[in-house]
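Annotated sample (chain length 287).
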Amino acid sequence: MSVNGVTSSTYLNYAKRIGRVYLHSTFGTGMDEFMSSMDKSIFGKCPPKKHWYSNPYNGADWSNLGTKFKDGFRAIEQHEAALRKAHGGSWLKTFWHQVKTTPKTIWSEATKGYNASKAAGKMGLGGGIKGLGTGLMKRMPLIGGLIAVATQLPNVFSAFTSKEGGVATGLLETGKAVGKLGLETAGFMVGQALIPIPFVGGIIGSIAAGWLGEKVLGKSFTEKQAEANGESTAVPGWTPFIAQSETPQTGGADAGGYPKWTPIKPTMTDEQIYQAAQYLNRGVYTS
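Output written by the structure step:
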């Protein structure tokens, strides 16, 4: 095989591996597999701690950190490969298996909770609701991933159909949406692995990656259009509560005599909220 042939084959293989890791981390338990591997390799030999805040870095092993990261991503690949083998050999079949079994999984958990509650002599409704929550958590990676993708669809659709957009613009926005979601997911995983404070490490990593993604990939099509039209990109209705006093304020005030406030845009995106929820419920999901 020619050098070019070998190079093309190698690049294609890497592309497949990256795509599978991306999809399993977004719609499956890839995030959990990575963080479990990193937690074991870095903090596995730490002495037992009563609380997570009891010097969490005491005894941490930071040697060969690059190898530890590789092992974490291999853990994602191995679990994804096992799922593909169990569900027909392709990612689409694995994904479809999750989708079609989601209603059954949620209903099964709700029924188990109801029956267990009745057997204990309690109201079955409470147990059923608890079981329903358990069922939802088992499919949270899939549900959360779909929600994260859905939040990007209006921007992509607008880029394709708007008179200022078109096919090329739509394809560009699709790529940017995929890239931003991937960066935020990776940022959450790495941040949580390096900062072993529940929830906090992941959010820091995700926000940092989201900031980097916006700097590298730029703002979305709808954000650019809003700015071009002089519109605010803040979330509608997200305005701080202003307590009115009996004495009107002066200077820099609106017509009513009260200080002018600029709506604040939340620092967490829908993807980051989804990633946080996925981390908090890690270990609950089953395939």
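Annotation: The CA atoms of residues 23 and 82 lie 14 Å apart.
Annotation: The longest helix spans residues 91-119.
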